Amino acid sequence: MPLDHRAALALAVDSYAAVLERGVGEPTLLARPVTGCPGWDVRALTDHLGGVHRWVEIAIREGHGRGSGEPAPAEPAALRDWFRVGANDLLAALDRDAETPVWSFSREPGHDRLAFWLRRQAQENLVHAWDAETAVGTASSLEPELAWDGVAEILEVFVPRMRARGSLGELPQSVRLMATDADGDVVIGDGSEPVAGITGPAADVLLHLWKRIDGDRLTWTGDVAAGRDVLARALTP
Asked: Name one GO cellular component term (predicted).
């Protein structure tokens, strides 16, 4: 059964909003550092994610990537409400046929359809909800199939994008990525036979690729040093 990215997005938004709700009663939570986003606290992460919601909604509605929305307010209850308004507007914009033509930042084939943003926003909010929950000590587990879809998205969207931006050169070797709780495996690299492999829960593979967790939580095979070198490169923004 295909993944329901819109439902996954709504769930991730609810998880993030629950952190902000806690922040209304305990404002110091909003100052907790977000380890996966160095230099940011939960408030800064919220400013970013709420801004993304507004930017994507405008991109879908107006067909360009130049949009911006109102800045995040400082007061905790107002910040919570601001986040929810932007998320609801985004969900409404995504409530149409997945094949609807849209603008997107990706130049890869097929990424000019609403399905691109459904998937991208499900994954964006999934990881950032984990960031926020981790910062306040309430991180929940990621659904394996959705996490593995996020791994595939990195290969299909962000590796080409990082190369196009000049942030990622040609990878010197290949690494096989395998999940213990999701179907399939993927190879990232230069197209050669993999010199190393990593295995672990799909969520851990995804979070490692997004540089949220250390690779020591995964099982490595082959030339571990070469494999770590490949995965340490700028595969994602």
From this structure: plasma membrane
